[in-house]
Amino acid sequence: MSKRSSKQHSQSGAKKSKHQRRTQKRLIQTLFKNTHDAIALIDDGLCIVDMNIAACDLLGLPRQQLKGQAISTFIAAEFARQPNSLNFPPGQSLSGELLVSSSTQIRREVEYTLTPNVIPHCHLLVLRDISQRRESIQAELRQQQQRVELFSEVTLKIRQSLQLKEILHTTVTEVQRILQADRVLIYHVLPDGTGKTISESVLPDYPTLMDLEFPQEVFPEEYQQLYAQGRVRAIADVHDPAAGLADCLIEFVDQFQIKAKLIVPIVQNLNAHSQNQLWGLLIAHQCSSDRHWVDFELELMQQLADQISIALSQAQLLEHLEEVVAARTAELQEEINVRMQAEAALRQSEEQLRLITNALPVLIAYVDEQQQYRFNNQAYRDWLGQSPTEIFGFHLRQVWGEDCYHRMKVYVETALSGQAVNYENDIVLKDGSGRAVDVTYIPHLDEQKTVKGFFALSSDISDRKAIERMKDEFISVISHELRTPLTSLHSALKILATGRLGTLSTEGQQMLGIADESTERLVRLVNNVLDLQRIESGKVILDCQACNAANLMIQAAEAMQAMAQQQEITLVKQPQDILVWADGDYILQALTNLLSNAIKFSSPGGTVWLNVELVTEENLPTSNTPKEVVFRVRDEGQGIPADQLEKIFERFQQVDSSDSRKKGGTGLGLTICRKIIEQHNGRIWAESTPGCGSTFAFTLPQALKHH
Ligand code: ADP
Q1: What's this model's pTM, rounded to 2 decimal places?
Q2: Pairing mode, if any, of strands 183-189 and 363-368?
Q3: How far is CA 186 from the centre of its chain?
Q4: Which residue out of 609, 654, 688 has the highest number of ligand 1 atoms within 8 Å of its CB and is therefore the one to mutate?
Q5: Measuring CA to CA, which of 36, 364, 464, 520 is 20 to 30 A from 505?
Q6: How far does the centroid of ligand 1 lie from the alpha carbon of residue 100, in Å?
Q7: How far is ligand 1, taken at its centre, from the CA of residue 566, in Å?
């Protein structure tokens, strides 16, 4: 190259480089102005040559003071301490993070890029403050942590509530608090598509949607299906056409000042096989302004909706359980009421029973199967000086003493075997006086017919006994006194009738006949009365032995033969050789009495049968048990009406009161017969078909060989 040309070249080169430097400077100035990052130019000695405003702010000093300052004053990077470290090829740069300490000791985290020799011997240091970014990341982390804590806190609160209503209320209140939403509600969807708000938390400035029922149009079928599949709707601005709300819905949301809303479904999966069912929606409203819902909010709402769904299943289970418990409780209550009523009724009836029994002048008691008293009336205190409470639980022996108990024992055992008994006993009262009592025991059987005890009734019959004794004595005395004059009267009449003392006119003889007949009747009556009285007073002691029934029947028939002939009655006897255990004289008396009645009440030409029979009962256990022998006297007479069959055995009872006159009876014959037969432990009864005849039958025990 020529010198000139070289000079020219160097001139043009100098010019060019000057121009270049100016351009670079302008470029740097533009860069300084238009970037937010801090930029500094540093020289080879690592001192600040120039910087922009952002760098002044970062390093904390004005431009004039910064110029010439070593960069190591502010930053602790490796390159800042070693000037030579910047000797790397142009086009390469150094970058990383470092700490900047400003003049006011504020430390900042900074991202840096160092580009050497952007201008010869001048290096570009770009510092970007990343402290804020770091802080915001940390803040976000902290926030997330808080949200997790918040979520578990709310979930816990929900779980702790047992009642569904409470759970829903807790949910809306907590969501409203956390989201700072203006209104949070739970909308329950009914199967017919309608629905209503069942829980709400709303700021006082806004209208409530609680209990409002919404028609199906507000929430059409297709929406329901979408929600059932889990759709979530976050609308930042309900008026934004992009939100796609129908006009009617916009009208609806305006009515409640809703500007933004977030909707998550509450879905129930009733069982593994069924489809998800939409139970309701958890909805947050912003009324004060539009609102961009963030992911966290969506997530929170969704998770809480899931919690509600779980709570719903649990609540339904609980509800079912409660229903079962309530039903059972009601049943139990009913049972208790019935029992209480029954107890009250029982108490009342017991009280009444006590009042009644206490008012009666007889001993009334209930004795259990252990022979211990379980109930006594007041008479026990009056008679024995022992109150019912004292006697309660006492054994009969303790109350009555050994002697008296000995007399009653057999009857007590009979009652406890299930048979009612009646007997007479003598007892001693608290004052030492004796009393005759009539005692009746009535067994008490439970539903299984097991004897549980017996009721005992004892009445004082001392007075009756005394009167009976007096009556017996009176009758006996009178009868004896009557018998003597009657006998002489009878004899006198008989003598007169012979005519030995003079002949009587026909009329006189008739009168004498009547007098004789009446005297005979009077003698019979006195004899009958005396017989009866003797038997009843227990003065008769039977002389029982084995008697042949045939003999008795023959004797009786013979005794009555004359009477039968007189009345033109055929007497048919069918004797059999059966041994009976009896006092022959008394049985003869009974038989003649029955035969005399049969003849008396038969029409002339009639027949009277007398027979005997041994009752063969197959169920009699052994041949050692005495069998029954039945005697029967049958006639073809007028018969006896059914209602009289028992009555005629009572004293002076006659079917027709004229009978005594016509037939010469006394009305005592059958009474005496019954007494005689009962003394023999037999039974006597009458059977009859009026107009056709009557049968009188009685039983006697068969006489066994060892008798
Ligand atoms: P009487 O001394 O009157 O016969 P009874 O005690 O022997 O007394 O009889 C009572 C009543 O029973 C009789 O008056 C009669 O009315 C009735 N009677 C007894 N036996 C018979 C019979 N064989 N036929 C019809 N009536 C009878």
Answers
A1: 0.43
A2: unpaired
A3: 40
A4: 654
A5: 520
A6: 151
A7: 19
Helix residue ranges, H only, 499-653: 506-536, 549-566, 584-600
- Which ligand 1 atom lies nearest to the CA of residue 593? 7
Report residue 470 as tokens: 């007096």
Give the distance (Å) from ligand 1 centre to CA of residue 517: 19
Separation CA 640–CA 648 (nearest Å)? 9
Pairing of strands 693-701, 628-635: antiparallel
With a Cβ cut-off of 6 Å, ligand 1 is lined by 597-598, 601, 635, 637-638, 640, 648, 654-656, 659-660, 665-671, 694
Considering Cα of 204, then 210, then 215, then 221, what sign does the dihedral take?
A: positive
Sheet bearing 38-43, strands edge to edge: 48-51, 38-43, 122-129, 107-119, 94-101
Q: Which stretches of 641-692 are assigned E, i.e. beta strand?
A: 684-689
DSSP bridge pairs for 183? 202, 285
Please identify every stretch of the chain with a pLDDT value under 50, giving residue numbers as ranges: 1-3, 619-620, 706-707
Q: State the residue for tokens 């299943």.
A: 313
CA distances from 403 to 213, 398, 400, 409, 496 (A): 92, 11, 8, 10, 63
Nearest CA residue ID for atom 19, ligand 1? 597
State which ligand 1 atom lies nearest to the alpha carbon of 638.
25
Length of the chain, please?
Answer: 707
- Dihedral-angle region of residue 405 (phi above 0 means left; psi in -120 to 50 means alpha; beta otherwise): alpha
pLDDT of 9: 57
Tokens standing for residue 675: 């007494």
What distance lies between CA 195 and its chain's CA centroid? Answer: 40
Pick the atom of ligand 1 nearest to 656's CA.
Answer: 16
**Ligand 1 mean position to 615 CA, how many Å?**
26
- pLDDT value for 619: 47
Ligand 1 mean position to 516 CA, how many Å?
Answer: 23
**Distance from residue 597's CA to the centre of ligand 1 (Å):** 6
Task: Give nearest CA residue, ligand 1 atom 13.
Answer: 654
Burial call 300-322: b when 16+ CB within 10 Å, e when fewer:
bbbebbebbbebbeebeeeeeee
Chain mean position to CA 543: 69
Ligand 1 centroid to residue 599 C-alpha, Å:
10
> Token pair of 14, please?
């100098």
Position in ligand 1 atom list of the atom nearest CA 671 = 6
What are the C-alpha distances in Å from 658 to residues 423, 653, 654, 655, 691?
A: 38, 11, 8, 9, 18
Q: What is the pLDDT of residues 494-548, one digit of tens each?
A: 888 888 888 888 888 888 888 888 888 888 888 888 888 888 777 778 899 999 9
Helices (H), ranges, 360-434: 379-384, 388-391, 396-416
Q: Exposed, middle or buried, 433 (CB in 10 Å: 0-12/13-18/19+)?
A: exposed
Give the three-state DSSP class for 456. strand
pLDDT in the model for residue 121? 82
Q: Each residue of 266-308: pLDDT tens digit? A: 998 766 667 788 899 999 999 999 999 988 889 889 988 988 8
Ligand 1: centre distance to CA 698 (Å): 16
